[in-house]
């Protein structure tokens, strides 16, 4: 048994222990993502920064997250057809199902990109978003819809995409606001 499968079974062993814990896991794996997006919007609207400083992180984070999730992740999934753990492993306590391929995790790619951009703009807020991202993604392993390596793959895609988009955004910003 691979380390990835062993770690999956270790985390998945938390599922099926109690209805309350299962509800918390499902909430974190599914609905916490919506709260994270709402928190980002609240951060933008309630911040004291100027309009340009306020919207830039939102635009960059949105761009990086969408490219990581719907561009790079889907491109990889077109060639890598890894079934979900609940579909192939015996004795999986699955709390959620999904029909898409497992690798890489789209949730991980999206939320790690978002968190990385926010961290690069504001370390305090970025740290909070990283914590929420880790809770979301680990909950998806516990719920039986991802292997740990799916999450790591998605995280690498998200973080790498975020750094690339932030770099490009800084280049564009510097060129647009250059004084001659």
What would you note in describing this structure?
The protein is mostly helical and 180 residues long. The chain has one domain: Phosphatidic acid phosphatase type 2/haloperoxidase (Vanadium-containing Chloroperoxidase, domain 1, Up-down Bundle). It contains seven helices and no strands. The protein has helices at residues 3-12, 19-46, 51-79, 85-88, 106-121, 123-142, 148-176.
Compact overview of the structure:
With 180 residues, this protein is mainly alpha-helical. The protein has helices spanning 3-12, 19-46, 51-79, 85-88, 106-121, 123-142, 148-176.
Give the tags.
180 residues; mainly alpha; Vanadium-containing Chloroperoxidase, domain 1; 7 helices; globular
In total, the number of strands is 0
Shape: globular
- The ordered string of helix (H) and strand (E) elements is HHHHHHH
Largest sheet: none
* Rg of Cα set: 18 Å
Amino- and carboxy-terminal Cα gap = 63 Å
Write the CATH architecture name.
Up-down Bundle
The average pLDDT score comes to 91
Number of domains: 1
Q: What is the level 1 CATH name? A: Mainly Alpha
- Poorly predicted spans: none
Topology:
Blueprint: H1 3-12, H2 19-46, H3 51-79, H4 85-88, H5 106-121, H6 123-142, H7 148-176
Helix pairs in contact: 2-3, 2-6, 3-5, 3-7, 5-6, 5-7
């Amino acid at each position: 048994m691979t380390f990835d499968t062993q770690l999956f079974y270790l985390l998945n062993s938390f599922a099926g222990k109690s209805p309350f814990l299962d509800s918390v896991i499902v909430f974190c794996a599914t609905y916490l993502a919506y709260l994270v997006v709402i928190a980002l919007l609240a951060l933008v609207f309630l911040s004291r920064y100027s309009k340009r400083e306020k919207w830039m992180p939102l635009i960059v984070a949105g761009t990086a997250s969408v490219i990581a999730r719907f561009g790079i992740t889907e491109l990889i999934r077109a060639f890598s057809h890894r079934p979900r753990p609940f579909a192939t492993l015996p004795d999986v306590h699955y709390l959620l199902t999904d029909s898409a391929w497992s690798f890489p995790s789209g949730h991980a790619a999206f939320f790690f990109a978002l968190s990385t951009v926010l961290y690069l703009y504001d370390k305090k807020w970025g740290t909070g978003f990283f914590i929420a991202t880790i809770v979301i993604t680990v909950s998806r392993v516990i719920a039986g819809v991802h292997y740990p390596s799916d999450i790591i793959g998605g995280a690498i895609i998200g973080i790498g995409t975020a750094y690339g988009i932030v770099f490009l955004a800084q280049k564009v910003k510097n060129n647009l606001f250059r004084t001659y």
